[in-house]
User: Which sequence fits this backbone?
């Protein structure tokens, strides 16, 4: 089964990964796919951002000592399960292959099911209606994970067609100097780069854009003098991050 052809399953797995309910071999396989496929990586980053926003609404609470005991038990159980999986994989690789691939993994389905349950619990815990939150959440039609030459993700870019906005979230550690600015560029096929805006140093920001502006195969970010450069001349500084722009099914 092609995970990219099943967006609902991808969303469940990304949520489960962000919550920590996707464990063992299923979690490792999901992370391998995320490294190899930009849509999977983008889904994981989007869910991490959603859940991080929910936790900001709660007051800090000191955990009960029993919580740490349970965490320790979970870690021990996870390590034991990993060792068992390694033994099983080494002893019966053909039998493992005959199960129909990692998408039929019991651990994966348990994690995906637990994701839905745990998200609901979190919603109650912070006094939110999760359904209402998701309905009112920004629509995402295009998504890009912009990475450096070493494939390290630095910027998550999504486009909301309802609000006609590009939403950018820094996911890397890069910070430009006080005398420099990052500038976002659309890379049309066979055409010159077109500026989509100059970024400030905030961890997240929004830029006005139309769908025609972002209907391009790729985006890039260059390092420019403070305030950016005119679009007509294209980037003048080094291109630090780039990546394909992927259209998602709304």
Assistant:
């Amino acid at each position: 089964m092609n995970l990219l052809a099943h967006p609902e399953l991808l969303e469940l797995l990304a949520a489960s990964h962000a919550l920590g309910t996707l464990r063992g071999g299923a979690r490792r396989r999901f992370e391998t796919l995320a490294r190899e496929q930009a849509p999977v990586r983008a889904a994981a980053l989007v869910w991490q951002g959603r859940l991080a926003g929910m936790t900001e609404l709660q007051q800090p609470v000191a955990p009960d000592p029993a919580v740490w005991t349970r965490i320790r038990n979970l870690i021990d159980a996870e390590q034991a399960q990993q060792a068992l999986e390694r033994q099983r994989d080494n002893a019966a690789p053909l039998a493992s292959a005959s199960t129909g691939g990692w998408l039929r993994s019991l651990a994966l389905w348990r994690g995906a099911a637990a994701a839905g349950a745990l998200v609901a619990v979190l919603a109650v815990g912070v006094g939110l209606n999760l359904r209402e939150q998701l309905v009112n959440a920004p629509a995402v039609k295009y998504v890009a994970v912009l990475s450096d030459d070493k494939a390290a993700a630095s910027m998550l870019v999504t486009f909301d067609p309802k609000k006609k906005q590009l939403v950018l979230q820094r996911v890397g550690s890069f910070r430009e100097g006080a005398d420099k600015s990052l500038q976002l560029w659309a890379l049309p096929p066979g055409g010159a780069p077109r500026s989509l805006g100059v970024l400030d140093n905030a961890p997240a920001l929004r830029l006005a854009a139309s769908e025609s502006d972002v209907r391009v195969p790729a985006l890039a970010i260059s390092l420019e003098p403070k305030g950016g450069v005119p679009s007509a001349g294209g980037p003048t500084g080094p291109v630090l991050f780039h990546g394909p722009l992927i259209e998602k099914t709304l």
About this structure: The chain has eight helices and nine strands. Confidence is low (pLDDT under 50) at residues 94-115, 117-135. The helical segments are 7-19, 24-36, 38-55, 65-91, 93-97, 106-125, 130-136, 211-214. The first helix runs from residue 7 to 19.
